[in-house]
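Record type: monomer structure entry
Structure origin: computed from sequence
Chain ID: A
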Amino acid sequence: MIRKMQDHYKVIIAGGGINGCGIARDLALRNIDCLLVEKKDFSAETSGASSGLIHGGAKYLLNDIDVTRLSCLDSGYIKEIAPHLLFRIPFLYTVYKTPQRSKLKAKVLLEAVEAYFKAYDAYAPLKKAQQHTRLTPDDVCALESSFDKKNLVGGVTFDEWGVDVGRLCIANVVDAAEQGAHACNHTEIVSVLTEDNTVKGVVLQDVLTKEIKQVTCDVLINATGPWAPVFGNKFNAQIKLRPTKGIHLVFDRKLFNMALVAQAIDGREIFIYPSQNVTIIGTTDDDYFGDLDDQRVTEDEIKYLLDAIETIFPAIKDARLIYAYSGVRPTLYERNCYEDDLSREHAIIDHEKVDKVSGVFSLVGGKLASYRIMAQEICDVVAKKLDNNTPCTTHKKFLPGGDDVPDVKALALDYDLDPYVCARIVYRHGSRALNILKMMTNNPEGRALVCSCEPVTKAEIDYVVKNEFVRTLSDVRRRTRFSTGPCQGTNCLIGTAGLLKSLLPESTASEYTMMQDFLKEWWWNRACVLGGEQLKQEELFQAIHFCNNSLDVFAGE
């Protein structure tokens, strides 16, 4: 990867989360020569650890109305340029009479909730969503039979969009590359080159091959999210953030058809919602002072979320929790306020003005739903510095696959493919699903399922390895969702590793080493939830991979 790089770029972008990926695409569409550098994989950290909601930010309506407006506006644009990737998630907000809340107070609260979402309706057209609906207790129970009608006063529904963040990130990277940008994952910026308080370039190291290369640039963009202060130290800049940690719990199937809102013990709102083939609970919001490279979900955090959901859905304790994940938000610095009240605004820092270091900018703060407009704003600044007058077009041009999303039923018939398998391929790739189906026609072996939970075919893995910057098994997971279902890799890990090794003959790692690296990366996501049925699944996993296949022995060869 490093050997193929140029020696100089107009712009180098540090950080391959959604902001960095969006910036690379924006610059490339303006014909600005750029290089995107990511230490791990695109969407591997904060972006991939988000709730996966391109939502309008209803919770910010009172205190951060600009955040709500921008989020709704960008949600609408993202729905237009990537229609295959966004899926509707209707939310249900219920109001009950409780020992602390009389029936009269509950009715007043319901009126207040409806008034709130009437105000939110003003932004619904921006995000291409439906407006809210007022529900009677009978309506609520008809939608979700698990609700207890006793003491139920009523409810309100409102709409948000869900998204596969890994697919959204890689779509931006692929489009940037097709427009002339260069991108590299598993590559670390080990140092920033400065001369006379001006950034001149960076020193890169390939994390997998250990190769090193020096690359110069006219402008460096720091889009490393919560790592922005750490990265800023490389060019003597002081960046202050107030990072907050959020965790999510993932269950093995869809438990509901819509998202439900519950109150945690401290009054915070918690969501449980369907996302693709699983159900997610999220999220916590706590100040984080630890090692950003060693975030782990704790037992207390899990109990906090489960306790909240049990108040509206007691059966959650019997559902199968398959893994959890955590991430740290790059929240703007502010003292004397609770974490949940911190602004989700973003900021662009010109370090020439703040730290007397020219040629470098930082993008900090913000939220997933407004990534495109954040990228536009910083690219406007950088383009002006480079005397480039080309306007932003990222809101007008389709992301790869979004131009002509095919009809799944017709496609399944044309290619004699299971409709569900076809639907998942179309969801992930849109119009480019045709490329994968044609590969199956040319090589029928490509029709075979490698992962039946999601499902994922051999042809799709072949496609993403050749076209989507795949270098490790974890990259395959983020591109295709293999191993994210109920089996958690028990049935698909060995086959996928062998296939990846055959598709990456230049890799010096054996399939056993690939599997070991994969297990190390995802172990803590599974270990923190082991118990009950999931513990039995883990014992089966360990028996297959470490006893039958001697993974621990062969990985050391």
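Annotation 1: The first strand starts at residue 8 and ends at 14.
Annotation 2: The two ends are 25 Å apart (CA to CA).
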